[in-house]
Structure formats: C-alpha cells, structure tokens
Amino acid sequence: MRIIGGKFKGRRFTPPADKWPTRPTTDFAKEGLFNILNNQIDFEDVKMLDLFGGTGSHGYEFVSRGCEDVTYVDKFPDAVRFVRKVVETLGIESQFKVIQMDVFKFIEHATGQYDYIFADPPYDLPTIDIIPNLIFEKNLLSEEGLFVLEHNQHQDFLEHPNLVDVRNYGKIIFSFFRPL
Q1: Degrees (nearest 5) of the Cα angle 33, 113, 64?
Q2: From the centroid of its chain, how far is CA 97?
Q3: In what helix (H) or strand (E) does residue 104 lie, and over which residues does it extend?
Q4: How far apart are the C-alpha atoms of 58 and 96, rounded to whole Å?
Q5: Residues paired with residue 173 on neighbouring β-strands, in sequence order
Q6: Could you tell me if residue 10 is left (phi over 0), alpha (psi between -120 and 50 degrees) or otherwise beta?
Q7: Residues 19-68: pLDDT tens digits?
Q8: Residue 61 and residue 59: Cα distance in Å, rounded?
Q9: Which of 176, 141, 52 is nearest to 104 (CA)?
Q10: What is the pTM for the complete model shown?
C-alpha cells in the first residue's frame, strides 16, 4: 500500500497478511478516484469520515493533501492496531481520529456532519445496499457534501435518488452521492 499524493506521496506501508479481512483499494482505482476528488474537494477545509476504513489508506491520502479532520471507523482489531501505528509513524495523531467500532453502530449514534464520507465495506456484506440510505437518514453528510461508496458489480445504486455519478475501475465501482 502506498500514498499516491500530497506531502506523504510515495510512503509505503505493508499491512500484515495473516487473516487480514480487508481488501485495499487498488492504486489504479485510488488514482482514478483522487483525480475526480481533486476537482471537487478542497482537502484543507473538509471534515472526512472513512467507514469500513481497513488499512486507513483513504484517510492517509486526505491528510497527505492537507485535511485536518479525518475520522476512521473499523471494527477489526488488527486493522485498527495497524492504522494507529501508521498514524503514529506519520505523526498525524491530531488530524486522524481512530475509532474501533461496528460501522452500523457508529452511524446509529453519530451526531456530527461530514463534508466527505467514504465507505469501503466488504463486497459480500449483506447490508451494503442500505448504507446510502443510512447516511442520508442520519443526516451525516453536510449540505454540499459528497459520499462515495466502493462496491463491485453485484450492487447497483442507479435508482437511488441521491446518486450523481458512477465510475468503474476494473472490478471496483465507485458510486457518488450528494444530498438532494
């Protein structure tokens, strides 16, 4: 895993491979996504939420580009331990809040709003289809905010009223949502 842009560009981190339940976004897909985000987001002024954060890669990219407020949520202890270590190594503890919790419990109890939300749930998660609705029902996205959901071809959000764009990068699909 490497950071592809910003002040930490080129930094590499290797998550432990044993029983690792995450599937890091490929560099190809991540570069495509960040090419889009570079034209839509002022990284320095954004409050970012990374759901099913896994290796923390998405959050590191945001901090590397100047984001001062990243919240990472994942329930897997080894992933959380790895992310805490990387956050410490990068010296970004004040910008990167790490929460070990089930994402659905986090959403249920969340009270703040975010300018950018990224969710990369396991592709076989049986409740992946309800995630966009939960984000909007709980009003987690700011008025001008952007929510990006990573998924595969087995999910289709084309009928969702908040969907504004879909991008395919091989087997990885990013669906983009905005408040109505």
Answers
A1: 40
A2: 13
A3: helix 103-109
A4: 11
A5: 151, 168
A6: left
A7: 666 666 777 899 999 999 999 999 999 999 999 999 999 999 999 999 99
A8: 5
A9: 52
A10: 0.95
C-beta separation of 69 from 50 below 8 A: no
Give Cα separations from 97 to 25, 28, 33, 69, 171 (angstroms).
Answer: 21, 27, 23, 8, 30
Ranges of each domain in the chain: 45-172
Residue pair 116/49 in contact by the 8 Å Cβ criterion: yes
Consecutive H or E run containing 172:
strand 172-177
Q: Which two tokens stand for residue 76?
A: 């897997």
CATH number of 45-172: 3.40.50.150
DSSP, residue by residue, 149-161: EEE-TT---TT-T
| Contact in structure between 15 and 55 (CB atoms under 8 Å) | yes
Closest CA to 47 of 106, 95, 103: 95
Tell me the C-alpha to C-alpha distance, in Å, between residue 39 and each of 32, 36, 126, 151.
Answer: 12, 6, 33, 22
Report the relative pairing of strands 141-151 and 114-119 from DSSP bridges. parallel
The per-residue pLDDT for range 79-119, each reduced to its tens digit, is 999 999 999 999 999 999 999 999 999 999 999 999 999 99
pLDDT at res. 34: 96
CB neighbour class for 166 (10 Å; exposed up to 12, middle 13-18, buried from 19): middle
